[in-house]
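User: Hey, quick favor. My workstation is busy. Could you predict this chain's structure for me?
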Amino acid sequence: MTHDRPAAAVAAPALTLPRELWRQIARGTPDADTLRVLRAARAGRNLLLLRAVHHASRDRGGRAGRDSGAAMAVLSAVRRRAPAVFDTLVTDPAAGVVLAEAVRSGRPDSVAVLAVVAGHRAGLPFRLEVPVRHGTVDLPGLGRAGLGAAASTARVERGPDGPTTVSAPGTPAAVRIPDPAAERASGWEPVPRVRLAAPRPGAAPVIRLDSHGPLDLGAPRVLGPQELERWRDRLGAAWELLAVGHPDRADAVRDTVSAVLPLDPRPPGGTRGAWLSASFSDAFGLVALAPLDDPAELAAALVHETQHSLLYALQDLTRLLHARPGARGHAPWNDRPRPPSALLQGAAAFLVTAGFWRREAALGAPAATAPYERWRRTARLACDELERGGWLTENGHRLLDALRDVLAGWEDAPADEG
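Assistant: No problem, here it is.
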């Protein structure tokens, strides 16, 4: 499932990209060079959004203008004095969400939470005002400070030698954020991280469980110890299956997914089948997952949502569609007509899902043939609808051709790889 918002992103120029790049993305197995290009594209998009926020902060008066100006000053200082911290922040999925929403809403002061995260990690002094939601201050990718107060804003400050503290009117004492922030402290709940095992040579991924990130999906949830341990087990089993049986796909997941948003076991409206996984156009590298206990199902969801992230970054790099507003087409996975952007995302993501199950079938999984055939047919029908719609740019046609090449190659080739 994808979640696209009205574009706050920069219009992507037309570029001539290598044919091999289209092949790699269609297969869902980009190499290190292609991934670097895509991450750079998303970093460039977020930097342009940050520039738009900066211009808006200079034009805004009153307290909001002062707050946004102070936040921008902290981010500027971090970029000068701790460039590695800044570079990590600007490619973080949380940064993409916060920056895009700041531009859409016209609230440049909302980037103060990013400035707090950057300033704390860089160890620089600052004093900033941030919003309080549900009695807590959520710092994306870092953690949350429970204030137990009804205040709407809190002050976060750090001296030249630390510590970083969070306080608000009506709180009995300031909450201290530890150095490093991954440690627990009174009133402070760090974002948990899971280091997955490496069953083969190569780096083991570290994934944060972002149950209270910047996405507005209702009141934030804190994972209890037992739930956290179950997520460690689920992700570990899915990762082992990928790393052993699907090494190329495992590399793509490891080098793309940095955060998992655990979805509530009780999905909205009871429509569990429609809420097994999701991705978000602003949040490159974030995957929302239902608590699937079947390692293959969870691995397939990771592969599927990774492909969505790759396409979001690709569309930062070049325009793939030129559809008129309101254009819709038949989606073979949904009863409702869907916009061309969703059809393109679906064609690519269901294709790699089919590739995953194709490989599982080749490895002897008896239940893999049915999902392979289902998602292969879904991808093919989505490709046909895109061709009929006339919505694709020149580079959009290059991607569609690459997707069709993968499908055609499956007709005759043995199922030794997805």
